[in-house]
Design a protein that fits this description.
Helix content of chain A: 40-55%
Structural class of chain B: alpha+beta
Number of helices of chain A: 16
Radius of gyration of chain B: 27 Å
Shape of chain B: globular
Strand order of the largest sheet of chain A: 9-10-8-7-6-5-4-1-11
Number of helices of chain B: 14
Oligomer: heterodimer
Structural class of chain A: alpha/beta
Number of strands of chain B: 33
Strand content of chain B: 25-35%
Radius of gyration of chain A: 21 Å
Helix content of chain B: 10-25%
Distance between the termini of chain B: 69 Å
Largest interface: A-B, 47 and 26 residues
Bound molecules: guanosine-5'-triphosphate, iron/sulfur cluster, magnesium ion
Strand order of the largest sheet of chain B: 11-10-16-7-8-15-12-13
Shape of chain A: globular
C-alpha cells in the first residue's frame, strides 16, 4: 500500500514575498512594509534558496507553484520570471502545472498583470476582501470597490484561471447584508472563491482593538448562520465548497492548496516559509521570518532555513487528518492507519457519525459533514485526542 | 547578679530567669513579624540569616504569608539590670482551622502576648484566642501593633479591648513590628509582668508532649515543655499514655536553628529525638516521664484535633493511585490532624476520603500533594460528618454522601452545628444577618462594642463549609471576621441531592442538603456546572435530583462553531501543536460518559454566588 493511499498528492513549490504597501489590521502573515526593495538581489536570493531546496528534494516533477505573501503583486514581472526560470532549471515542471500568484487589486498592481502572465503565471488570486466601501476601510485595505472590480475584470481577461478572497463575519454584519454582498460578488466571480470568516489573530491591531472593546464580532450562533448562508448561496451558484473556506466549480479547485490538504510534499522558499519534504521520512523546514535576516542567511549560507524538524509518523498521521478533514472529499482511513500504525478508533468514529458530524463515504473515505466542518477543531480533538 | 551560663554546654536555667509565652492574635495581625523582631533583638539570627516571618518555614506558609504550624524559639535576653533571661517564644497560627495549635501552645506557657492590629482592632480570632489564654490562667500582655500605619487608632483599640474582652490596657505596649518600634518595651514587659514557671528539678521527670514532626535527617522530633525533673541525652524515658519507652538520642532547643544542650530543666521548652519511627507513636498532650522513676500523676492531655470536613481526593490520572497513597501517607507523617481512608467512586475510580480541620487545611494538603508529589488531583464536594440513625437502632457516621443508604432504612439524620462569633462594623450588619439567616442560622446574641457588632450565631456546619467565609468577607468588604467551634449534633430534615450530567449520575457531585434549601442549591449547582463544563459537540443536560425527582436543570448547548478559517502549508505545525495541547488538556479532565469535566469543577460547582 502506498503512503498516500488514494490521495496521490502533487509536489509543489511555495515562494513567499514578504512585503506589503501597508499592514492590514487583521493580518498575522509574515508581511513587512518596505518600499525600497532591491528586487534583483531578492530574485537572486530566492533562486539560491531554491537551489538549496533542490539538493534536499532531489529530482522531482513539479505540479504546482504558488507565490504568496505579503503582496507578491509588488514583485516585478522580471522577478517572478527569474524565480520561475530557476524552478524550471532545477526541477521538471509539468506542462499543465498550476502557477498561482496572490495579488492586491490596486490599479498599480493590475498594471503588472500582463507581465506576470508572460512570465508564466496562469492563475491569479485577488485579495478583494469586501465589496463594501466602509468595510474596506475598516479592514485597512488600500483599494476601492471599483478598483477591485476593475482588477477582477482585467485578471479574468488576462489569466486562464482567477479567484478572489472575501472576508466576512465582520462586525455588525447581518446575514441579509452578507447574502447581498456575496450574491453581487458571485456575479463577478469566475470559477473559484475563497471566503474567510474574520478571525481576530493574536498580536494584530485588531486584537488590541478587540480587547479594548472597540468592536465585536459575530458570536457562535451568528457566525454559524453566516457560514451556512455562504454555503447555500455558493452551492446554488455552482461553486460548492470543497474546503472549509474555499469554493470552486468542480475541477477548478486550487491544486496547490489541495496539495496541502492532501498532505503532500512542498518546498517553502522565502522568509518565514514552511516546507514539508521527504515523504514518509517527513521533515518540516522553516525559514527565518525577518526579511533582513533571511536575506543575510541566504547570501551567507545559501539558504534561510532556521529549523529542520523531523515529523514522526504519528505526527504525520495527525497532520494528515487535520488537513484532510477540511476537504469535502475527506481522508483515506487506510492512509491514516499506515502512518499511525493503528486504525482510527472505531467507537469514536461511530459516536461522531452518530452525531452527524462525520460521514463514511461510499468510496471508503471518511469526511466531516457540513455540520462537522463547522466544529472541526472539536471533532479532531474528539477523534484524535 | 549575673547568672553564669556557659554557652557551649548549656545547663538548665534557674526558674526565676525563664519566661515562656505564646504570641496570639487574629490572622495577619503581625505575630510572626513580632517574632522576627524579638529574634533579631536577642541576636538569634544574623542580619544575613534574617528574612521576613522567618519562622514560617514551609513553602506554603511563605507563599500565603500565613502561619500554619506553631513554632518555638528560645531567646537570650539581657534585661536592663544586666541579668540574662531565657525567653521561650511560641508563634501560633491565627486561622481558625489551626486553633488546636494555639491550644497546645498555650498549655506550654505561663503567659501570652495578645497582638492586636491597631488599625483593625479586635477581631473574631482575637477573642477566641484570648479566651483560651484566660481559660488556662495566662498572664496576658496586650500589644498594639502596626502603629506606624496612618490608620492606626491605638486609643480606640485600647477602649475596645477593655470593653469587649475586659482586659486592662493601661500598660499595653504600642509597637510597630515592621519598623521595630517598641520591641524593647515588649521584652521588658515579658520579664517584668509574666510569671516565671514553677517546677522541681529533683523530682521525677514530668514533661508535656507539645508537638512532634518528622525530620528526614533526625526521624521524629518531639517538642516538650518540662514541668519537673530533667531530660538528658542517654536517659530512658516513657510516654505515659501511649506506653512507648525510648532512650534519648539528642536533647536541644531552637533559636530558631537547632542546637543541642546538655539538659532541659523545669520550665524549659525544647526538643528531643529518641529513634522514634513514626509521628503516630507520639501523642500530643502525652506525659513524658522517666522509665524507672515515673511521676505520680500524668497531665490531663488534650483532646485530639477532630477533622470536620471530609472530601474525596482522586488522581486525575487513574494510574497514579499508588503514588497518591504514598504521598498522603508521607504528609500524614507530619500532620496527624488529617485522616484518610480508601474510597471508590463509580465515576472517579480509586481515591481517598480525607478528613480535614477546615477548608484552608484541605486546600493546603491538596496543594502540597499536587506540588510536592506532582500529582494532579480531583477534589470532590466537601462534606461534614452526618449521624444516621437507622430504623434498626444502629448509628452510622457518614463521611460521604455517596454512601447514603436507602432512605427507608433511615429513621432520622443528625448534622453538626457550630457556634460562630462574627465581628462586623455596623454598616454591614444587615448583610451579615441576612447571610446567617439564609444559611439556616439561629441568632444567639447581638452586642455592640463601639461601632462594631458582635454577633453570635448557631449555624449548621454544612452551610458554612464551602463558601460561608468567602461570602462573609465579600458582603462586608473584608471587614467581618469569623470564628467558630463545633457545638454538637441536631436532627435535621436532610436529603441527598444527586447531580446528573448527560443523564448519568456523578457520585462525586452528590451532596447532603436541607430539604428547604435543596431547590436553591440544586439550581445554583446546575448553573455553576453550566459555566464550568465546556461546550461539547452535543448538548448536555445537567440535572439535580432528590430521589427520582428532578428539582433543577440546565442545558449546555452544543458547540456551533469551532473551526480555523485559514489553514495552509504554513499553518500545519501550529495546528498540530494545538491538537497536542488539546490532548494534554484532555488529561486534566475526567470523562463521565461522553462528557469531559475539568478537574477543578467539583469544588468550584459548590461556590454559590447569592444575589
Ligand atoms: N505596617 C505594618 N505592617 C505590619 C506590621 N506587623 C506586621 N505587618 C504586616 O502584616 C502582615 C501580616 O504579618 P504576619 O506577621 O505574617 O501576621 P501573623 O499574625 O503572623 O499572621 P498569621 O500567622 O497568618 O495569623 C504582613 O504583611 C506584615 O508585613 C507593622 O507593625 N506595621
Ligand atoms: S496585504 Fe495581505 S499580507 Fe499584506 S498586510 Fe494586508 S492582508 Fe497582510
Ligand atoms: Mg504568622
Amino acid at each position: 500500500m502506498s503512503d498516500e493511499g488514494s490521495d496521490r498528492p502533487d509536489f509543489g513549490i511555495y515562494v513567499h514575498w514578504p512585503f506589503c504597501l501597508a499592514k492590514c489590521p487583521y493580518c498575522d502573515f509574515n508581511s513587512h512594509v518596505s518600499r525600497n526593495v532591491d528586487q534583483a538581489r531578492w530574485a537572486r536570493a530566492l533562486a539560491r534558496e531554491l537551489e538549496h531546496a533542490r539538493e534536499m528534494t532531489g529530482p522531482k516533477s513539479v505540479q504546482t507553484i504558488f507565490f504568496g505573501g505579503g503582496t507578491p503583486s509588488l514583485m516585478e514581472a522580471e522577478t517572478v520570471g527569474h524565480v520561475l526560470d530557476t524552478i524550471a532549471r532545477l526541477w521538471h515542471v509539468d506542462d499543465h502545472a498550476e502557477i498561482s500568484l496572490e495579488a492586491n487589486p490596486t490599479s498599480a498592481d493590475a498594471g503588472r498583470f500582463t507581465g506576470y502572465r508572460a512570465a508564466g503565471v496562469n492563475r491569479l488570486s485577488l485579495g478583494v476582501q469586501s465589496l463594501d466601501a466602509k468595510d474596506l476601510r475598516f479592514l485597512g485595505r488600500m483599494h476601492s470597490v471599483d478598483e477591485a472590480l476593475d482588477a477582477i475584470a482585467l485578471a479574468r481577461a488576462t489569466f486562464p484561471r482567477i479567484s478572489f478572497d472575501l472576508i466576512y463575519a465582520r462586525p455588525e454584519q447581518t446575514v441579509a447584508a452578507w447574502q447581498a454582498e456575496l450574491s453581487r460578488a458571485l456575479d463577478f466571480a469566475a470559477d473559484h472563491l475563497s471566503l474567510y470568516q474574520l478571525t481576530i489573530e493574536e498580536e494584530t491591531s485588531f486584537a488590541r482593538l478587540y480587547e479594548r472593546g472597540a468592536f465585536k464580532v459575530p458570536d457562535g450562533p451568528l457566525s454559524a448562520a453566516l457560514y451556512e448562508a455562504t454555503q447555500a448561496i455558493c452551492a446554488e451558484a455552482g461553486l460548492p465548497n470543497y474546503e472549509i473556506s474555499n469554493h470552486a466549480r468542480p475541477g477548478a479547485e486550487c491544486r496547490h492548496n489541495l496539495l496541502y490538504w492532501h498532505y503532500g510534499d512542498y518546498v517553502g522558499a522565502g522568509p518565514g516559509a514552511h516546507g514539508r519534504l521527504g515523504g514518509r521520512d517527513k521533515q518540516a523546514t522553516r525559514t527565518l521570518k525577518a526579511p533582513g535576516a533571511w536575506l543575510a542567511s541566504v547570501e551567507e549560507k545559501g539558504h534561510g532555513i532556521e529549523a529542520i524538524e523531523p515529523i514522526s509518523l504519528a505526527e504525520q498521521a495527525d497532520e494528515m487528518m487535520l488537513m484532510g478533514l477540511r476537504l469535502g472529499e475527506g481522508i483515506d482511513p487506510l492512509r491514516y492507519a499506515s502512518l499511525a500504525g493503528a486504525a482510527l478508533d472505531e467507537t469514536r468514529i461511530e459516536r461522531l457519525t452518530g452525531d452527524g458530524l462525520l460521514r463514511r463515504l461510499p468510496n471508503g473515505r471518511l469526511a466531516a459533514s457540513p455540520e462537522g466542518r463547522l466544529v472541526l477543531n472539536a471533532v479532531l480533538a474528539e477523534l484524535l485526542a | 547578679m549575673l547568672y553564669p551560663r556557659p554557652m557551649s554546654d548549656k545547663n538548665p536555667t534557674d526558674l526565676a530567669h525563664i519566661r515562656n509565652f505564646s504570641i496570639i492574635a487574629h490572622i495577619d495581625h503581625g505575630k510572626s513579624t513580632l517574632a522576627d523582631r524579638l529574634i533579631q533583638l536577642c541576636g538569634g539570627l544574623t542580619q544575613r540569616e534574617m528574612k521576613e516571618q522567618v519562622l514560617d518555614s514551609m513553602d506554603i506558609e511563605r507563599e500565603r504569608g500565613i502561619t500554619i504550624k506553631a513554632q518555638t524559639v528560645r531567646l537570650d535576653y539581657t534585661y536592663k539590670n544586666g541579668e540574662l533571661y531565657e525567653l521561650n517564644l511560641i508563634d501560633t497560627p491565627g486561622h481558625v482551622d489551626f486553633a488546636y495549635e494555639v491550644n497546645r501552645s498555650l498549655a506550654a506557657c505561663e503567659g501570652s502576648l495578645l497582638v492586636v492590629d491597631a488599625s483593625q482592632g479586635v477581631e473574631a480570632q482575637t477573642l477566641a484566642n484570648v479566651y483560651q489564654a484566660i481559660e488556662v490562667n495566662h498572664e496576658i500582655i496586650p500589644v498594639l501593633n502596626k502603629i506606624d500605619l496612618p490608620a492606626a487608632e491605638p486609643e480606640r483599640v485600647r477602649e475596645q479591648i477593655e470593653e469587649v474582652i475586659g482586659l486592662d490596657t493601661s500598660n499595653a505596649v504600642e509597637i510597630s513590628a515592621k519598623t521595630g518600634l517598641g520591641i524593647e518595651a515588649v521584652l521588658e514587659a515579658i520579664v517584668e509582668r509574666l510569671p516565671s514557671p514553677k517546677g522541681d528539678a529533683t523530682a521525677p521527670l514530668k514533661a508535656m508532649l507539645v508537638d512532634s514532626w518528622y525530620d528526614s535527617y533526625l526521624g521524629v522530633v518531639v517538642l516538650v515543655r518540662v514541668i519537673d525533673g530533667e531530660m538528658r541525652k542517654g536517659q530512658r524515658i516513657k510516654m505515659m499514655a501511649s506506653g512507648g519507652a525510648y532512650t534519648l538520642d539528642q536533647v536541644g532547643i531552637f533559636r530558631p536553628k537547632k542546637e543541642n544542650v546538655a539538659a532541659l530543666g523545669p520550665g524549659e521548652i525544647g526538643f528531643f529525638t529518641a529513634s522514634i519511627k513514626e509521628v503516630a507513636d507520639t501523642r500530643v498532650g502525652d506525659t513524658v516521664t522517666e522509665e524507672r522513676r515515673p511521676c505520680a500523676a500524668a497531665l490531663p492531655g488534650f483532646r485530639p484535633a477532630q477533622p470536620v470536613v471530609f472530601c474525596g481526593l482522586f488522581p486525575v490520572d487513574a494510574s497514579e493511585f499508588e503514588d497518591l497513597r504514598d504521598a498522603i501517607g508521607k504528609l500524614r507523617l507530619n500532620d496527624a490532624s488529617f485522616e484518610f481512608e480508601m474510597e471508590t467512586s463509580a465515576a472517579l475510580g480509586f481515591g481517598f476520603r480525607c478528613g480535614f480541620l477546615g477548608l484552608l487545611h484541605l486546600e493546603i494538603v491538596r496543594e502540597r500533594i499536587e506540588r510536592e508529589f506532582n500529582i494532579d488531583l480531583i477534589t470532590t464536594a466537601p462534606s461534614v460528618v452526618y449521624h444516621l440513625y437507622m430504623t434498626n437502632g444502629d448509628m452510622i457516621e457518614m463521611h460521604n454522601p455517596a454512601d447514603m443508604p436507602d432512605v427507608v432504612k433511615i429513621d432520622h439524620i443528625e448534622e453538626p452545628w457550630i457556634r460562630a462569633t462574627i465581628l462586623v462594623p455596623d454598616e454591614y450588619l444587615g448583610s451579615i444577618l441576612k447571610l446567617c439567616e439564609d444559611r439556616r442560622g439561629r441568632q444567639v446574641e447581638l452586642t455592640y462594642a463601639g461601632s462594631r457588632a458582635m454577633l453570635v450565631y448557631r449555624l449548621p456546619l454544612n452551610e458554612v463549609v464551602f463558601d460561608f467565609y468567602d461570602r462573609l468577607k465579600s458582603v462586608s468588604r473584608g471587614y467581618a471576621s469569623f470564628d467558630y467551634h463545633i457545638e454538637g449534633y441536631e436532627t435535621g430534615d436532610l436529603v441527598r441531592m444527586s447531580v446528573l450530567v448527560n443523564e448519568e449520575p456523578v457520585d462525586a457531585l452528590s451532596m447532603v442538603v436541607h430539604r428547604a434549601r435543596a431547590e436553591q442549591r440544586g439550581r445554583a449547582m446546575c448553573e455553576k456546572l453550566k459555566e464550568l463544563i465546556p461546550q461539547h459537540l452535543f448538548k448536555i443536560p445537567i440535572q439535580a435530583a432528590i430521589g427520582g425527582k428532578v428539582i433543577a436543570r440546565e442545558t449546555i448547548s452544543a458547540l456551533r462553531k469551532d473551526v480555523t478559517a485559514k489553514c495552509y502549508g504554513g499553518d500545519i505545525t501550529r495546528k498540530r501543536k494545538l491538537l497536542d495541547k488539546q490532548k494534554e488538556g484532555k488529561k486534566k479532565m475526567r470523562q463521565f460518559g461522553r462528557v469531559d469535566i475539568p478537574q477543578d469543577a467539583f469544588i468550584a460547582a459548590l461556590k454559590m454566588d447569592e444575589n
